[in-house]
Amino acid sequence: CMTSFNYSGNGKVNFLPRQKSLPVQLSLNFSNECTEGLLEFVKRLSTKSGFSPSGISEMQSAVKDTVELIRRHAYGGNENNVYHVLLTSVDSELEMRFADYGASMNSDKGDVFSSVRRTMDRFELRHHPKGGNVVTVSKKAK
Predict the structure, then answer these.
(1) Is 137 exposed, middle or buried (0-12, 13-18, 19+ CB in 10 A)?
(2) How far apart (Å, rounded) are the C-alpha atoms in residues 132 and 83?
(3) 63 near 76, Cβ under 8 Å?
């Protein structure tokens, strides 16, 4: 967390309003506890961004599917690995960027993310520069 302020002397302090949300970065393993914690965090950010209950449920489902697909396809089902998530909430849009260092999930495996693509407004799968994958998804509240 970060707070900006001006100190003008004589003990007078003015706090500046935050211009936009700061991104949140998490490094998680594939345990049920970490996944449940991430889903709860997504629920709270979605609520704050103005998502309806059904929109929140869609977001959580897409996140859960993405985490499971990364575990299954990038890490061969091994739960003892780590992935990273960057969450950004601006106005009524929530963006999440998942990064891993597992096997590339290229097109020869078919579209393993088809359910996530249908749910989200934006979906992008790229190769990570250091190996692995970067999955970016975003959705606007309606």
Answers:
(1) buried
(2) 10
(3) no
Residue type (1 letter), 108: D
Looking at residue 76, the DSSP 8-state letter turns out to be T
pLDDT at 41: 94
DSSP string, 97-133: EEEE-S----GGG--TTHHHHHHSSEEEEEE-TTSSE
- Return the pLDDT at 142: 85
User: CA geometry: angle at 56 spanning 87 and 119, to 5°?
Assistant: 80
Full-model pTM: 0.83
For the chain (142 residues), the mean pLDDT of every run of 10, in chain order, is 58 60 89 96 93 96 96 92 94 94 75 91 92 95 90
How far is Cα 103 from Cα 54, in angstroms, rounded to an integer? 33
With contact defined as beta carbons under 8 Å apart, do 64 and 72 qualify? Answer: no
